[in-house]
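Appendix B, Record 12. Input sequence as logged:
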Amino acid sequence: MAPAQNGDKVKIHYTGKLDDGSVFDSSEGGAPLEFTLGQGQVIAGFDQGVVGMELGDSKTLNIPVDQAYGPHHADRTFEVDRSDLPPEISIDLGMRLQANQQGGTVIEVTVVEIDDSRVKMDANHPLAGKNLTFDIQLVEINQN
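Logged structural output:
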């Protein structure tokens, strides 16, 4: 079988780690990640790292910020008055919420600070600004 190339549907087992070695995601014990190479279904560095692998190959991908989720943008953080939030919502640090922007667009935000009157939220991807390392194994290739 030929090495994986753009257009092939692949299945990958992976463990994703941050620079400090902490694991942020893994397919271990579950189903492998399935995607089509070159279609933008995964971050660029992951997609490019799989191209050329052969069935059963394992490797480590070191993906810099610009090939992962991009830099952390300070202008995507904002504060809201606690009184503007629905009273039935219990707010905790790290909690992921959906917020409506002007114009009706829904965005995902993470609660990053809480005090008695204000809640600070971050609309960046939780992994923005971070270099990522993935230990991967190619377990299936469906070539076009």
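The helical segments are 44-50.
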